[in-house]
Amino acid sequence: MKTVYKMPEPITDRPTTYCPGCPHGIAHRLVAELLEEMHLTEKTVIVWPVGCAVFGYYFIGTDAVEAAHGRACAMATGMKRTHPESFVMTYQGDGDLASIGIAETVHAAARGEKITVVHINNGNYGMTGGQMAPTTLIGQKTTTSPYGRDAKLTGFPMHVPEMLATLEATAYIARASLDSPQHIIQAKKFLRKAFNTQVNGIGFSLVEMISSCPTNWKMTSVASMERIRKEVLPVFPIGEFKVAERVE
Description:
This protein has 10 helices and 9 strands. It has helices spanning 24-37, 56-59, 72-82, 94-100, 102-111, 151-154, 160-165, 181-199, 214-217, 221-232, and strands spanning 44-48, 63-66, 87-93, 116-121, 124-125, 131-132, 170-177, 204-210, 239-243.
């Protein structure tokens, strides 16, 4: 028998705690594959947040700390400045990063902190029941917008990569999607560039990954991926928004 794939070394051997169809596991695999391929596992510290993303500390076996809600980039800043030889990254959902943590995110980016941020955007607060998040689409129904998000009341979806790309000190900013094999392969390429940005000491890097939340979207896994393609990606387009020199 020929081995066609093996679990990345940083992934722990334990059952998932995520809902059926949740793409967090895909994102974890991409992170773990790159940590192994780039020989970063032993020097990595991952800052895990509050929210569904926090369960990652069960599944990726690196050194790790847990931040208070929204404070992951602030904690990562301290870790990287204190231990500049370490590879420091955060892994955050949209409720954590783009709502309560938006100040920490923006100012870490504006300072050009040499950290890497993985931003999982599934358009709602997944852990606490599916409330509206900064990235919820106009018209999308959530537990706190039961009639659909109204821009006159709650504004428009926040485009984090586009916003951070305008800051002078950011080095690599991109958005990927986890809805199809093709896009997952592309997501890994973007994430590798983000990791290289930190390894080469260039500056702040972030990759937003468009994800689904079948449970709170009240959809099957297949239907939720189709929704990403038809409704989410037209609003949140895939691409690289800023690529500094020497990032490749």
